[in-house]
Design brief:
By secondary structure, the protein is an alpha+beta fold. Helices cover about 20% and strands about 25% of the residues. The chain has 1 helix and 5 strands, in the order αβββββ. A hairpin with a 5-residue loop joins strand 3 and strand 4. The chain is rod-shaped. The N and C termini lie far apart (about 45 Å).
C-alpha cells in the first residue's frame, strides 16, 4: 500500500513535466525564437527550463 501511495503521489506531481530537446520543463516544445540580426549574426532565445540537460556533441 505504501508503494502504491508513493507511485500515485509521484504520478500526480510529475504529470505536468515534459522532457524536450533541451531539458525538463512544463512545455512540450522548446518555443525558441531564432532570428538573424542586421549584421547577419544568428541568435536563439529560449525560455528557461526547470532542468537543463547538457548534450555533448
Amino acid at each position: 500500500m505504501k508503494l502504491y501511495s508513493i507511485t500515485l503521489f509521484l504520478s500526480f506531481t510529475l504529470a505536468g513535466c515534459f522532457v524536450n530537446e533541451r531539458g525538463v520543463s512544463n512545455r512540450f516544445y522548446d518555443e525558441c525564437k531564432e532570428y538573424y540580426d542586421a549584421s547577419g549574426s544568428y541568435h536563439q532565445e529560449c525560455p528557461k527550463n526547470w532542468i537543463d540537460l547538457k548534450m555533448v556533441p
